[in-house]
């Protein structure tokens, strides 16, 4: 397992070569009074050398960014030889503030405000799944703050009609209807195991139950469920007005990805990220050719 993960790390690290110790920061989430007051939080992984540039990494919907810690911080990490890494939770999940909106412009502003607060003038930004989409929009909206973009199993696509997104929306709808005030932790976990068909997603949802005081979600499940029910969900959509990213880009996804369909879904990458044109397989590529099924979305594990 670690050999495969190390090989995957090498793929990530090589893409950014041209462009220690670990500290963990954990904060209690809160509800922001307005969108401009949302504060983001996450896990900081210090690189093995002084004065390294920063990589900001964003997770998939409902998955805490800290879940990527074992991948980035594995022994002999090649990424931490070239970058400090912030595993950052965007609004409405992890330890970051909640606010009843997934409006993309506001989410990208949250990230740049986090950079200002932490004195990060420039960074590479990337993400997994929906996190990749947010990363792309953030780089486009704030081109003067980012040196490169990484897209992992996600990107500038409208996922509303993808089977994988619809399945996730069903899991979110199920979770949002749970009356946690009438359940203990074990009952809630059993309910999720029974009603979420994918074991990996069930594990992620169970990980979002906090037992600190009253049983509750760390994810803003109500807001996420409401967004996914919209005619044009912000969490699924990629709007044309989001624009283009002209900078350096690296995109990687499973050969049999359920989120990026090779036959139809690669064209938007070339349209939005023109530097990827004629760059297969160096900067837009696939792996895990023999792997099929839901776990293709978590190739790093």
Tell me, what's the shape?
A: globular
Which residues form runs of ≥5 with pLDDT under 50? 16-28
The total count of strands amounts to: 10
Q: Domains counted in the coordinates: how many? A: 2
Q: Quickly count the helices.
A: 9
> Would you identify the CATH H-level superfamily of the largest domain?
Alpha/Beta hydrolase fold, catalytic domain
Portion of residues in helices? 25-40%
CATH topology category name of the largest domain = Rossmann fold
Helix and strand composition category: alpha/beta
CATH class of the largest domain: Alpha Beta
Largest sheet: 8 strands, mixed
Order of helices and strands: HEEEHEHEHEHHHEEHEHE
The percent range for strand residues is 5-15%
Computed Rg: 18 Å
Mean pLDDT: 91
Describe the model.
It is a single chain. Mean pLDDT is 91; it is low at 16-28. The protein folds into two domains: 2-157 and 238-298, Alpha/Beta hydrolase fold, catalytic domain (Rossmann fold, 3-Layer(aba) Sandwich), CATH 3.40.50.1820; 163-229, no CATH class. The strands form two sheets. Strands 1-2-4-3-5-6-9-10 form an eight-stranded mixed sheet, sandwiched between helices. A two-stranded antiparallel sheet has the order 7-8. It is 31% helix and 15% strand. With 301 residues, it is α/β, with parallel strands linked by helices. The longest helix is centred in the N-terminal third of the chain and has 15 residues, at 2-16.
């Amino acid at each position: 397992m670690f050999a495969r993960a190390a090989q995957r790390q090498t793929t990530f690290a090589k893409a950014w070569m041209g462009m220690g110790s670990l500290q963990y920061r954990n904060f209690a989430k809160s509800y922001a009074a307005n969108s401009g007051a949302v504060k983001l939080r996450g896990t900081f992984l210090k690189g093995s050398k002084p004065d390294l540039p920063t990589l900001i990494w964003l997770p998939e919907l409902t998955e805490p960014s800290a879940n990527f810690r074992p991948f980035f911080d594995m022994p002999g990490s090649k990424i931490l030889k070239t970058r400090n890494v912030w595993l950052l939770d965007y609004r409405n999940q992890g330890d970051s503030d909640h606010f009843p909106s997934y409006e993309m412009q506001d989410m990208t502003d949250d990230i740049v405000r986090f950079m200002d607060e932490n004195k990060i003038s420039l960074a590479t930004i990337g993400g997994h799944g929906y996190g990749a989409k947010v990363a792309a929009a953030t780089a486009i909206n704030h081109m003067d703050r980012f040196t490169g973009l990484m897209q992992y199993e996600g990107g500038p696509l409208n996922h509303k009609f993808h089977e994988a997104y619809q399945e996730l929306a069903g899991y979110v709808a199920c979770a949002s209807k749970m009356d946690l005030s009438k359940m203990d932790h074990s009952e809630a976990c059993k309910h999720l195991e029974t009603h979420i068909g994918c074991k990996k997603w069930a594990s992620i949802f169970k990980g979002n139950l906090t037992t600190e005081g009253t049983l509750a979600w760390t994810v803003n499940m109500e807001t996420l469920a409401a967004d996914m029910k919209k005619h044009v969900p912000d969490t699924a959509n990629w709007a044309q007005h989001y624009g283009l990213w002209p900078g350096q880009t690296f995109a990687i996804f499973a050969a049999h990805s359920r989120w990026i369909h090779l036959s139809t879904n690669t064209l938007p990458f070339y349209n939005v990220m023109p530097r990827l044109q004629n760059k297969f397989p160096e900067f837009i590529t696939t792996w895990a050719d023999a792997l099929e099924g839901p776990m293709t979305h978590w190739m790093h594990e």
